[in-house]
Amino acid sequence: MHRSGEIWMAVILGIIFLGIIGFQVTQRVIGGPNHHYYQRTKTDNRGIIARNYYSQDQLKTLTAITHGSQYHGNTSLDTAATTHSYQLDGKPLPNIVGKDGVLQLYNQSKFMTTKMVLDAASYWNHIAGSHIVEVVDRQSQSDEVIHDGKNQRGVLGRQAYNGQGIMYYPANWHVANLSAEQQNNWQEAALIHEIGHALGIPHLGGGPLGGNAASAGVYNMDFMGPWSPSKSDLGVRSTTVDAAALALAGLSWQHPRKLASWVLTNPTATVTYNDSVLASTIPRGR
User: Fold this and answer.
1) Would you say the C-alpha torsion 189, 191, 197, 201 has a positive or negative sign?
2) What is the pLDDT of residue 285?
3) Nearest 5°: phi and psi at 103?
4) Whole-angstrom distance, CA of residue 144 vs CA of residue 163
5) How many CA atoms lie within 13 A of 131 on its CB side?
6) pLDDT digits (tens, 9 = 90+) for 97-132
7) Which end of the chain, N or C, is surrounded by fewer C-beta atoms within 10 Å?
């Protein structure tokens, strides 16, 4: 090969090498499937229930708890105890929890303060009886980013599992006739709710899609279903339905975890957020 050919070959190989290095660095910095940098951890859609954490009888009990009343729970969650799949209406329920079994969140939202995100993380950690949600200081450490959007008709917040993170739409925030305490509780409930979706929990409003309560215009205590501050004088209070759903969701993660096992022995325990104050009667480490 002529000298000039060798030089050009070296240049081409150098460009390819730099391209590979550049891609690897970009993936390390951006760290995920989304160039917008709002979701760094790939959505997990396996929907498989790990079977060595709860007995078969315990799984049946957990699914029975998720039924709640006619407006609570999701009947399709029964498959967790029958076919050991975690799904809603025949489709695997997704989550954004990484391989470490902890959901790392970074807050970029002005609508949701970092204090509110920290409280929401603590709320879920109490229900879980373990550390499952963490608020990090840098985007590069996060599984997902909480941020604000400009246009989304009729929706205050959403978790779409499509790389866009947890998004809120402040323009849709309507608080007429609500006290400052009710406004605070509603805002926190909306945050806890969307984090619940990131953990893999569907709407808990009854029926195969969890939408019975919403269709009937019925509000209940389950914050993963239709929730209203005017109907919840005690604030955002957990229920056994929320806990049982988390217990099932945790079994479907990339790194399955036994969570909220207290619901099988202490069904009256609760965690409450009321006007920026958290209170829990749930045993830790359960």
Assistant:
1) negative
2) 63
3) -90, 110
4) 8
5) 5
6) 999 999 999 999 999 999 999 999 999 999 999 999
7) N
